[in-house]
């Protein structure tokens, strides 16, 4: 498992592995409570666009 960090103005703060698993945190997402960016050890924030499925209201 890659080490993840919360990006703050004072620097990156490491996130405990148990917290990463509990909240299913990933690089490129935001923390669930403070909405701060989650980055890797180099400070990279790669946000992957998730393709939304389009559904029709007609059958």
Structure description:
The protein has 59 residues and is of the alpha+beta class. It has a three-stranded antiparallel β-sheet with strand order 2-1-3, with no helix packed on it. The protein has a domain at 5-38. The protein contains one helix and three strands. The protein has one helix spanning 17-22; strands at residues 5-8, 11-14, 38-39.
Outline type: elongated
The mean pLDDT is: 87
Using DSSP, what is the number of strands?
3
What is the string of SSEs from the N terminus onward? EEHE
Low-confidence stretches: none
How large is the radius of gyration? Answer: 15 Å
Q: Topology, please?
A:
Layout: E1 5-8, E2 11-14, H1 17-22, E3 38-39
Task: Write a brief caption for the model.
It is built from 1 helix and 3 strands.
Label this structure with key terms.
single chain; 59 residues; alpha+beta; three-stranded antiparallel sheet; 1 helix; 17% strand
């Amino acid at each position: 498992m890659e080490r993840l960090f919360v990006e703050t103005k004072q620097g990156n703060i490491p996130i405990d592995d148990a917290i990463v698993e509990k909240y299913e945190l990933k690089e490129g997402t935001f923390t669930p409570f403070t909405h701060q960016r989650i980055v890797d050890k180099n400070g990279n924030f790669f946000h992957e666009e998730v393709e939304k499925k389009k559904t029709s209201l007609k059958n």
